Automatic annotation (TrEMBL):
Gene3D superfamilies registered for this protein in UniProt: Periplasmic binding protein-like II
Signal peptide: 1-23
GO cellular component, one term: periplasmic space
Entry similarity comment: Belongs to the bacterial solute-binding protein SsuA/TauA family.
Biological classification of the source: Bacteria, Bacillati, Bacillota, Bacilli, Bacillales
Subcellular localization(s) per the UniProt record: Periplasm
Protein name: NitT/TauT family transport system substrate-binding protein
Tagged with keyword Glycoprotein: no
Transmembrane segments: none
Length: 335
């Protein structure tokens, strides 16, 4: 009788132990939040984002990230505004365009990812001693009108006494996703390209990197994570967790070697050689393109608007606090 009593008690104890574990597991599953993120393009320029994914920083925060590449600032913003994404990774200028058109639900920048331009000037011919005045009279395959790459490109050209609309044959009617293919097919003497495309072209002998727009233009909030004001208001905990995961990744990138970073992000660039990824990471890291914190400061914001104004694309000046919310970034950094 005592034997059966002990067995019964043991069984009961096991049940009591299993129930809480099962309940905890179910609770953990319930607390996982899916966040849909639309990125403007797939680029090594966004290395900290891929580090946050590959190293599980988002997962540790209880976030399941569904990442979609939307190929172009206009398409990315349309996806966000239409409800096809919760968060967008795109140039801050898009939030200014939306606000200037009038909206009851503005798009708010809450975490910066990159702080310089990410494009490079690629020449069709190899140039040993490049100078900017060599562009005069050439055919320049630029980026989409009103987009951040094109505005920075024009800003830099003007700094070198080149009027892009008078001194060049400027092509701007090629869709963002097809610019590289257009150059490869023979369009243009020069082109403005992101990595790794620029280095791949150099590797294949299709073009040669002669200058960096990032080193020429100074610090700007080139690509930031943003969301509609209503989403941020209703999902403050999610935004905080997202920003904390990003900050961990930014610090990881800052403190690790280019080889470590390349290895971490390689799953997102399966068709790109690891040595090439490392080369591109080193190029971006050495010119300070990766922001080391999610904070978007006022000086950078004003520099962005100066560039937009110089390009004739600034609808009106927007105060920093109107479209930038640094509270989440400041919170995760302080802790």
């Amino acid at each position: 009788m005592k034997k059966w009593f002990r067995i019964a008690m043991m069984s009961l104890l096991i049940v009591f132990l299993i129930i809480p574990i099962t309940a905890c597991t179910q609770q953990e599953k319930k607390t996982v939040k899916t966040v849909r993120v639309a990125e403007v393009t797939r680029s090594i320029f966004y290395a900290p984002q891929y580090v946050a994914l590959s190293k599980g920083f988002f997962k540790k925060e209880g976030l399941n990230i569904e990442l979609t590449t939307t190929w172009g600032g206009d398409k990315t913003m349309t996806t966000l505004l239409s409800g096809g994404a919760d968060i967008a990774l795109v140039g801050s200028e898009t939030s200014i365009y939306v606000y200037s058109q009038g909206t009851n639900d503005p798009v708010i920048n809450f975490a910066q990812l990159t702080q310089t331009d990410g494009t490079f000037l690629v020449s069709r011919k190899k140039i040993d001693n490049f100078s900017w005045d060599q562009l005069k009279g050439s055919t320049f395959l630029g980026q989409r009108k009103g987009g951040m790459p094109q505005m920075v490109g024009e800003f830099v050209l003007k700094q070198h006494s080149i009027d892009p609309h008078k001194d060049l044959h400027l092509i701007q009617n090629v869709d963002f996703a097809n610019i590289a293919n257009a150059f490869a097919s023979g369009t243009g003497d020069y082109v403005q390209l992101f990595e790794p495309t620029a280095s791949i072209f150099e590797q294949q002998g299709k073009g040669y990197i002669v200058a960096s727009f990032g080193t020429e233009s100074g610090h700007v909030p080139y690509t930031t994570f943003m969301a509609k004001q209503s989403f941020i208001k209703n999902n403050k905990d999610t935004i905080k967790k997202f920003t904390r995961a990003l900050y961990k990744a930014q610090q990881w990138v800052e403190t690790h070697s280019t080889a470590d970073i390349a290895k971490a992000i390689q799953p997102y660039f399966k068709d790109t050689d690891i040595q090439l990824i490392e080369k591109v990471v080193d190029r971006y890291k050495s010119q300070g393109s990766y922001a080391t914190s999610p904070i978007l400061d006022e000086e950078e914001w004003n520099n962005l608007q100066n560039i937009m104004n110089e390009a004739g694309e600034l609808p009106k000046h927007i105060d920093h606090q109107t479209l930038v919310d640094n509270s989440f970034a400041e919170n995760v950094i302080d802790k």
